[in-house]
UniProtKB/TrEMBL annotation:
GO terms (BP aspect): D-gluconate metabolic process; pentose-phosphate shunt
Domain 6-phosphogluconate dehydrogenase C-terminal: 181-470
Species: Chitinophaga silvatica
GO MF annotations in UniProt: NADP binding; phosphogluconate dehydrogenase (decarboxylating) activity
UniProt keyword Oxidoreductase present: yes
Family designation: Belongs to the 6-phosphogluconate dehydrogenase family.
Matches recorded under Pfam families: 6PGD (PF00393), NAD_binding_2 (PF03446)
Descriptive protein name: 6-phosphogluconate dehydrogenase, decarboxylating
PROSITE patterns: 6PGD
Keyword Oxidoreductase: yes
Residues forming the catalytic site: K185, E192
Pathway(s) where this gene product acts: Carbohydrate degradation; pentose phosphate pathway; D-ribulose 5-phosphate from D-glucose 6-phosphate (oxidative stage): step 3/3
Length: 473
């Protein structure tokens, strides 16, 4: 490779950058990576498949000089200031027509700003969401590109080669203008938060209601993964229960602290949903539950003050497992429904032209929220590409109706027994509000007009009305 130029460059050779670059090399592309840390450059070259062309360098200018023109460079560095720092270092080294990709979890508004900034210099900037974690990056992630369509054409062959494949179709497609790729990835992560919360609630319900040990929990989740709940998150959950702790004779799950971390993409989804506005209460709840998990000391103090209700979860084991299965299935569909409805609204409101039929296809493989349900949603969007909410699809309605009664039963029993299942409850409440033709919000309108002359509309005639309410009679 002494006199040849490389097809693709990567900045940041951490978990994602290293593995994505090795994936590209395995598909016949010659690749070069830059990291300030020489050890990471060596690790990249050592991990390369024999016969592939992979180089690591410690100088950014060296990497840029060694790239085929127009240059195609991706960065996989932490979101925020590091992305701007990389852009500042890159700009003097690039030429008009070069393509710069941010493959990290950046906020889409930052991506919009960077698209403008680089456009002024004739450089294409693309925000591309990548999902699948370490393993996915190495063997086939789900890829969510947005931005300049001409720039996408330049990297499309490479992205299609490295993406996960479902029925031979690559899990990558052009997902809309400017910040659309990062917007779709943000909502993907919001749905990820919701489903993870729901699975953790199901775990509690199985432990308390059926007294399952870790081996039994493994068996239940393993069998669920063979049926309608088939998904990456259910699959890894089954594995987790079998992992032994290497420091004690316990299972690892039983010694992990219940304080849950987060890097912010779930919170962004909730914040942006409020801005639109679109209701995503199960995602909001999942974010809130991670926050409450951090109140460890207060929770321990409160546990000493408030007596827990008696554990009244005593259904026959097989029946309880089926009921919890159905509740998880119901609420998982509701989580996708909320996230997809948000994308539908954002696509119009933010003028990003996000093609929802393509989004659900891209999520079928490689990503953290991949599941057999994505096939159902793909069919729903084949019927109606502009579906505002997948709950309005007849096929989805049939699935919901089949598990609705068991969901109500589980939520009611959990409430009586004092088991925290806010994710399941929020999904059921969203559903009940969504399927209600006349909500009680007429009273809210009356109150607003009473105290603030905010006006209201009537059901029997057009127009806007205000009433001089008879105060405190
Ligand atoms: N891990 C995951 O499962 C997923 C992560 N992502 C996203 O991908 C991005 C990268 O994540 P990940 O690979 O896990 O992170 P890592 O921390 O493993 O790697 C980040 C890399 O960026 C480098 N870096 C940091 N700051 C700079 C800078 N200013 N200039 C140049 N290089 C810099 C680091 O180099 P050094 O350490 O030498 O400073 C490191 O090599 C993030 O946005 C993350 O949210 C997306 C999907 C999944
Ligand atoms: O993007 C991802 C997967 O698609 C990351 O794994 C995800 O961001 C993890 O988020 P958090 O640390 O907030 O749980």
């Amino acid at each position: 490779m002494a006199n040849s130029l490389y097809d693709f460059g990567m900045i940041g050779l951490g978990v994602m950058g290293r593995n994505l670059l090795l994936n590209m090399a395995d598909h016949g592309f010659s690749v070069i990576g830059f990291d300030k840390d020489a050890a990471k450059n060596n690790a990249l070259e050592t991990a390369a498949t024999p016969g592939t062309t992979v180089k690591g360098v410690s100088e950014l200018s060296t990497m840029i000089q060694l790239l085929e023109r127009p240059r195609k460079v991706m960065m996989l560095v932490p979101a925020g200031q590091p992305v701007d720092d990389v852009i500042t270092s890159l700009l003097p080294l690039l030429e008009p027509g070069d393509v710069v990709i941010d493959g990290g979890n950046s906020h889409y508004t930052d991506t919009l700003r960077r698209v403008q900034q680089l456009r002024e210099q004739g450089i294409h900037f693309m925000g591309i969401g990548v999902s699948g974690g370490e393993q996915g990056a190495r063997t086939g992630p789900s890829i969510m590109p947005g931005g300049d369509e001409d720039a996408y054409a330049k990297v499309k062959p490479m992205l299609e080669a490295i993406a996960a494949k479902v029925k031979g179709v690559p899990c990558v497609a052009y997902l809309g203008k400017e910040g659309a790729g990062h917007y779709v990835k943000m909502v993907h992560n919001g749905i990820e938060y919701a489903i993870m919360q729901l699975i953790s609630e199901s775990y509690t319900l199985l432990k308390l209601g059926a007294k399952l040990n870790n081996d039994q929990l493994h068996e239940v989740f393993k069998s669920w993964n063979l049926g309608s709940l088939q998904s990456f998150l259910v699959e890894i959950t089954a594995d987790i229960f079998l992992q032994n702790d290497d420091k004690t004779d316990k299972r690892l799950i039983d010694v992990i602290s219940d304080k849950a971390g987060s890097k912010g993409t779930g919170k962004w989804t909730s914040q942006d949903a409020m801005e639109l506005p679109v209701a995503v209460p199960t995602i909001d709840t999942a974010v809130a539950m991670r926050t409450i998990s951090g109140y460890k000391e207060q929770r321990l103090e409160a546990a000493g003050i408030y007596k827990a209700p008696e554990n009244t979860l005593h259904a026959p084991v097989d029946m309880w497992i089926q009921q919890v299965h159905d509740a998880l299935y119901f609420a998982t569909i509701l989580s996708y429904a909320q996230g997809l409805a948000m994308l539908h609204e954002a696509s119009k409101d933010l003028k990003m032209d996000i093609p929802l039929p393509e989004v659900v296809k891209v999520w079928r493989g490689g990503c953290i929220i991949r599941s057999s349900l994505l096939e159902v949603f793909t069919q729903a969007y084949q019927q109606n590409a502009d579906l505002a909410n997948i709950l309005l699809d007849k096929g989805v309605a049939y699935l919901i109706e089949s598990v609705e009664a068991n969901t109500r039963s589980v939520v009611a029993q959990a409430a009586t027994a004092g088991v925290p299942v806010a994710g399941l409850m929020s999904a059921l409440s969203y559903f009940d509000a969504f399927r209600t033709g006349r909500m009680a919000t007429n009273l809210i309108q009356a109150q607003r007009d009473y105290f603030g002359a905010h006006t209201y509309q009537r059901i029997d005639m057009p127009g806007t009305f205000h009433t001089e309410w008879q105060h405190n009679q």
